[in-house]
């Protein structure tokens, strides 16, 4: 079935064959370095899988190539719209400017016939000024391939409230945003992210731990970008059965299904839908509802949303 993906990291979704080719590594070794073979012990260990892809994402050619290949993979996965995210500041090691980084990724995505936009990630642990640059870039590229900003990285070590001033600036600049919260950090972090103005939450599933957080999500009509396989890989839940996606969905919360990192988690949306069907017996209508929620909360115009809804139901 046709799908929409809102939470997808470019650097966590590079084909192992490309890593192998560009770094002159044996394919087995490339897979080992970029994919979690078994559950990690923490989000930190999971994030270490990004070291290898980041090594190759430092030139215009390579950025363009991995973006194009991801778009091809999305098309194969029957994705009709995706918001792809990445942190431009991580790609300056060989002298590229932030604009060159973004232009290269946009160029790669545009080579495939699929509707995509970019989300620029500010990073937890980066300086105020470095993250401020991302807001300025988002403003510059807004609705020209970039639709919003995000805050990613190690949640537990860098609470969302430390970034309050940056999100106030983003709001003043008219940039909407999503924030990673309620993944490594607790339900309180979800509430804080919503208070700061996020209309979507990356993960957010730990809101289930606090009724107040669930109420706030419903009251503000927030959409959760749920990434089930990723949550298993970072050891948040022992099994899919323990994952709260079904409970959250049954509560009437806007749920969307995402892969987070296709390579690190060795998954696709198709596979994720299959696993969810198997475990929770979601019906096709449930998935349609979730994709409608994704379209409604996408950072695109009303006209574009109407077009996508039509395409979804074709
Ligand atoms: Zn993420």
Q: Can you describe this structure?
A:
It contains 15 helices and eight strands. It has helices at residues 16-22, 27-34, 43-47, 51-56, 60-76, 98-110, 128-141, 164-172, 187-196, 211-219, 228-233, 245-250, 269-280, 284-297, 302-313; strands spanning 3-9, 79-86, 115-123, 146-152, 178-181, 200-203, 223-226, 254-257. It has one domain (3-298): Metal-dependent hydrolases (TIM Barrel), CATH 3.20.20. The strands form two sheets. A four-stranded parallel β-sheet has the order 1-2-3-4, with helices on both faces. It is of the alpha/beta class. The longest helix has 17 residues, at 60-76. The mean pLDDT is 95.
The bound ligands are: zinc ion
Q: Briefly, what CATH class?
A: Alpha Beta
Shape, per Cα inertia axes: globular
SSE string:
EHHHHHEHEHEHEHEHEHHEHHH
Alpha-carbon Rg, integer: 18 Å
Mean residue pLDDT? 95
Q: How many domains is the backbone divided into? A: 1
Helix/strand/pairing category: alpha/beta
- Tally of contiguous helical segments: 15
CATH architecture: Alpha-Beta Barrel
As a percent range, the share of helical residues equals 40-55%
The separation of the N and C termini measures: 10 Å
The strand count comes to 8
Strand content: 5-15%
Main β-sheet, in a few words? 4 strands, parallel
Instruction: Give the strand line-up of the largest sheet.
Output: 1-2-3-4
Low-pLDDT residue intervals, each spanning 5 or more residues = none
CATH topology: TIM Barrel
CATH superfamily: Metal-dependent hydrolases
């Amino acid at each position: 079935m046709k799908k929409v993906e809102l939470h997808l990291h470019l650097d966590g979704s590079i084909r192992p064959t490309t890593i192998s080719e560009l770094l002159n590594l044996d394919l087995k070794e490339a897979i080992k370095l970029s994919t979690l073979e078994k559950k990690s012990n923490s989000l930190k260990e999971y994030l270490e899988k990004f070291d290898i892809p980041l090594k190759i994402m430092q030139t215009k050619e390579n950025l363009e190539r991995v973006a194009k290949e991801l778009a091809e993979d999305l098309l194969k996965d029957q994705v009709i719209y995706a918001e792809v995210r990445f942190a431009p500041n991580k790609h300056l090691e060989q002298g590229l400017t932030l604009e060159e980084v973004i232009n290269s990724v946009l160029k790669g995505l545009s080579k495939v016939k699929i509707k995509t936009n970019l989300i620029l990630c500010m990073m937890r642990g980066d300086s105020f000024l470095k993250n401020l640059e991302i807001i300025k870039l988002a403003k510059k590229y807004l609705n020209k391939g970039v639709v919003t900003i995000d805050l990613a990285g190690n949640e537990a070590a860098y609470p969302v409230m430390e970034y309050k001033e940056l999100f106030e600036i983003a709001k003043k600049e008219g940039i909407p945003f999503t924030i990673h919260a309620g993944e490594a950090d607790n339900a309180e972090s979800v509430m804080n992210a919503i208070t700061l103005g996020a209309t979507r939450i990356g993960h957010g599933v730990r809101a289930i731990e606090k009724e107040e957080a669930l109420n706030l999500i419903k009251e503000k009509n927030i959409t959760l970008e749920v990434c089930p396989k990723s949550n298993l890989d970072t050891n948040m839940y022992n099994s899919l059965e323990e994952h709260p996606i079904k409970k959250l969905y049954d509560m009437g919360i806007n749920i969307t299904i995402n892969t987070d990192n296709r390579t690190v988690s060795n998954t696709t949306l198709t596979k994720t839908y299959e696993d969810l069907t198997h475990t929770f017996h979601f019906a096709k209508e449930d998935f349609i509802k979730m994709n409608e929620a994704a379209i409604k909360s996408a950072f695109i115009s009303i006209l574009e949303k109407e077009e996508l809804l039509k395409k979804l139901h074709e």
